[in-house]
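Service request form, structural biology core

Requester: graduate student, group of Dr. S.
Request type: structure prediction, single chain
Budget code: on file
Notes: please return the result as structure tokens.

Sequence provided:
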Amino acid sequence: MQIARTLEMLRKRLDDLRAKGETIALVPTMGALHEGHLTLVRRAAAQADHVVVSIFVNPRQFGAGEDLDAYPRQLEQDSRLLEREGVALVWAPSPDVIYPAGYATNISVGGVSEGLCGADRPGHFDGVATIVCKLFNQVMPDMAFFGEKDWQQLAVIRRMARDLDLTRPHVEAIHGVPIVRETDGLAMSSRNAYLSPEQREQAAVLPRAMKAALVEMAGGEAAEPALESLRDKLLASGFDRIDYVDVRDGDSLALLEADNGNARLFAAARIGGTRLIDNMPLS
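Core staff response, request fulfilled:
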């Protein structure tokens, strides 16, 4: 496995990988890898000849007062994990390589970027769309893999790829991979490491309360009373703030009052300084 830190090195290694006409899958990450990331890598390896993993903590998707400086950076540890998985190449550029002096371009995706995390993190999805577009241009993969925990992010990336004609011949397929969960149901996230032992126990209430709301709605309960019950459970368990609890269409992310066959339950809530997100299908 090689680690590329410059565009020249990246392109040379990619040329070597493509010399035999073999396929390349991209798994974009910000590092601090866990089993959820490694699941993406394994899915990619099952469908492509070579896997390229990017590790870049993207400053443009962090807002004022967010955890850019505190976000864990552990390239050496991450590289060991990826080497064990048979990854061909790690793309680990510095911020000045991605955003050189004078950089002035931004990508904004309307519609699916609004509401949910977009409402609480203004500019976040512009940063996501911009870095993913750059990664697609730099690596030019045959396919790319993203986790469904960040469902809105996946919707933004798919919309951007369609609108900017990136899907052919640039990226043939954008794959969403189901959420990987801890044994108590909490969705795996690099930010879970911020939680104290007590907060970690409280955090496990989030998926349990969401599942209970799904059962209530499946039993005929209207959406809003079920969502109000979910909010109450989260606040009672120790969550400090609820950013949103919504039922939305899985594709357009438009608000819904009932299941349309493609509905999902979305939630974001905070314990201390840690923001947790999750989503689940209604049916």
